[in-house]
Fold each of these.
Amino acid sequence: MGKQGIEILDLDVNQLIQYLNEALAEEWLAFYQYWVGARLIEGPMRSEIEPELIEHANEEYEHAIMVADRIVQLGGTPLLNPNLWKEYSKCDYEEPNDPYVEVILQQNIDGERCAIRRYQQIAEFTRGKDFVTHRMAIKIMEDELEHEQDLEDWLNDIQIMKEKLRH
């Protein structure tokens, strides 16, 4: 980013880069959690849910690109080593040790809720101070809210199906 672009920011750019690197680590872990979960998932409606998980993984990848690009625009350096992802991430990566569909969905819901909090934090930090990052955070948060709803809907559908089978 040019001098004028950085000068007009009314915030601590180093703190923002820290938040963005934390978000970047979380996006990579979310991508992998979706991606690997989609390959391992077992149970009812697996064939319908698997493509949704792949779609969410691809969207997390796109978020990582957006965040990394913004870090560079701000004069920072995106995390260079994947070994740092767990250190920087404030969201848990839950290994899909149990591939049952409800477990995989709940793990990803937990991740989405953490991502929503992250982008709410970035949006609040940049509101009225860095319009570009603010707009990006709002866009990504909208995606994360949609992901959470999609996953909750799948879990609800499975619960309804299980109830109908019991009766």
Note: The domain at 11-166 is CATH 1.20.1260.10 (Ferritin).
Amino acid sequence: MYQFVDTNEEKNGILAPSDNMNINGVGLNQYIEGYQQLSVMGRELIGYNVNATEIPLRNGAFFNYRQLPVRELEVTYELKSNSPLEVREKFAQLNQALKPELDLTFDDEPDWHYYGMLTDASTPKINGLVAVGSFVITCFQPFAFKKEQQSKGNISLEYADRVLPQKITLHANTTETIEVSNGRETLKLRGSYSSGDLVEIIYEEQQVIIQKNRKNIASDLELQSYPETFYLRDGDLITVKNGTLVLVVWRDEKL
């Protein structure tokens, strides 16, 4: 829990705490005049949900598995207004700002992004023209994701044990087969490639797209190649057979 507010810190001339929350890079205090973040909780340790089976007449239990729950970020805020009418208007602005899916950063870790949506809010205490309340943003992926990193093959991870790439780009030779390797797994493509063809393996949230010169060539992926298991680890060197690697893009992640 962060409760300290550095009264000497300003962002674009607007008073803000050192851990101020931003939506798409812009603080709520910049969206809404009179908004002040008082505290934020939920970026600390996160426990696991454990599944275990109790065995009759035996102490303890049999461990099955554990998994991470969602992450909940609780923000306490103060909202100052100049008139009763303005109170209602500023709550409308706050509702509007928190309505979509949110890309969140905090001033004390600006390179790390949390993704979530508003799921709960307290009834604010209103004293005259000052309201104090809180709201909860649920991150269904509990990780914070670093901004995109890229290289010509060398992979560096600071926190994650492994991550899937965001994108792999290469130029093909004149060939019928292309192999991309991380030293453990290999992605094999079989088709017709000319020298200089642009081949891209693009990892989207629900699917992997494989393109040649911007056209879909998913059918070129050989049956024993599994992009969903092609993980990157710290220190990996990505190599290409029958082509030249242009770029690998990935994102580190942390709890």
Note: The domain at 10-146 is CATH 2.40.30.200 (Elongation Factor Tu (Ef-tu); domain 3).
